[in-house]
Amino acid sequence: MPKVEVIPQKRPPRGLRPLLRAKLAKLMEELGYAQHAVTVILCSDRRIRELKRRYWGEDAPTDVLSFPTFEPGDPFIPPHLGDIWISLDTAQRQAREAGHTLEDEVLVLAAHALWHLLGHDHASEEAWQGFRRVQERILTL
């Protein structure tokens, strides 16, 4: 079973951490990464803004950032795929705007970031299809 560690830097709603661990682990298993691990850090807009400024040069908060531990195409995929940072502040706003729960929004963001960790990007409409598939799938697991 994949290992999903969830670290709350900002207090999440009760039940979010075990839900996120379970569903992201199931998704990783379905995708063929049962022997791998990821770390998910739940944070504030302030913290994710600092990270985005430092690593992307953009001074604005965002919903999710992913930091892979390997380069796509590398023949060796390490046991730990990388870190996923999710802003609970932005996720809450997006959930309200979309009319669904914070839990669903966080799951979608985690699936999106996992797909990035696995080497995918969304530079084209065709590339977005994979993101949409994993984002929809995590909600049905």
UniProtKB/TrEMBL annotation:
Protein name: Endoribonuclease YbeY
Cofactor note: Binds 1 zinc ion.
Gene Ontology cellular component terms for the protein in this record: cytoplasm
Function, as annotated: Single strand-specific metallo-endoribonuclease involved in late-stage 70S ribosome quality control and in maturation of the 3' terminus of the 16S rRNA.
Top enzyme category: hydrolase
Family matches, as Gene3D superfamilies: Metalloproteases ('zincins'), catalytic domain
Record GO biological process: rRNA processing
